[in-house]
Amino acid sequence: MRVKLLQRKYSNILTALRLVPEEKYKLNIEQTKKDIRTQGLAVIVASNPRNPTGQAIMGEDLKSLVALSREKTTLLLDEFYSWYIYPENEEDYGQSLSSASYIEDVDQDSVIIVDGLTKNWRLPGWRVCWVLGPKNLISALSQSGSFLDGGANHPLQLAAIPLLESEHVKQEKIALQKHFKAKRDHVLKRLDEMGLRVDIPPTSTFYIWLNLEHLPAPLDNGLTFFEELLKEKTIVVPGIFFEINPSHRRDLFSSPCHHFVRLSFGPPMKDLDMGLDAMERVLRRAKYEGMRHFGHNCKCSEMKRVADCLIAFTDRKSWDGKGIQM
């Protein structure tokens, strides 16, 4: 018997660069340089600051990251959370973080920055965003955008202009950083009082990456923790929903994200306290009633049901407006 093997040549292959807690979920620049040279990485796509870990590349590390664009690769950076950084000293409030600070020549450095009004100005409904990069790329994007959807809403573009005035921007940054830092510190304090461990406290964004491994099984996995909080009309996001798993090579329940959940300290303080109170109730039940009533030994077939729960929770009508999203 003769068998003919057909080989397909893939010109574009996705590779996930894993960020580990031992390096505070930061991109290892030296390893990335090696990957560019040995694997021929043409484009690096990254969010900075990052959801869900709440970490960011800053200073010399960010400068080194931008320098990678001069090593035959392109950087595509999402900087939507660039104002959500929390300096230790109040006199440092009002700063922001951007790779633009380290670009030497906008047309020669192959760096593409995506930002907008959605997060920093808290105006997601306006759908006004922008891209910074080499002229030839911006020209191509403009043509594509014009063909696909006509571009951003013109009246809202005009309305956005005064929001970009430098003094207004500075005051917005200061107010935002004070407000969100206070909420971050409050949530971290309450989590610590509950015995819930945050291995790497967030230095940016409004997210907390919470490790559950020290809790008794099955409450130590993100899906069970999510389900028990759902009974309290409170939602967190199971860590496996943030797993980058090209071609689904890895079983999600063997994922390094399986024992994590993501919390948000974006809601108002009173809502945060209601959500944290719900966590306390779940932990109290586990302590005094034992674990026999917890979890359903979720398998991969349960993923759709959990995803449906996440979608259902966003439908406020089905929750009488009383659910807390964290």
TrEMBL record:
Keywords from UniProt, A to Z, are: Aminotransferase, Pyridoxal phosphate, Transferase
Cofactor field: pyridoxal 5'-phosphate
List the Pfam families hit by this protein, alphabetically.
Answer: Aminotran_1_2
What InterPro entries does the record point to?
Answer: Aminotransferase_I/II_large, AspAT/PAT-like, PyrdxlP-dep_Trfase, PyrdxlP-dep_Trfase_major
Query: Which GO BP terms, alphabetically?
Result: amino acid metabolic process
Q: Name one GO molecular function term.
A: pyridoxal phosphate binding
Claim: Transferase is one of the keywords in the record: yes
- Domain (Aminotransferase class I/classII large) ranges: 19-276
Superkingdom classification of source: Eukaryota
What family does this belong to? Belongs to the class-I pyridoxal-phosphate-dependent aminotransferase family.
Alphabetized PANTHER family for the sequence = ASPARTATE AMINOTRANSFERASE (PTHR46383)
**Designated name of the protein:** Aminotransferase class I/classII large domain-containing protein
Q: Which organism is it from?
A: Clathrus columnatus
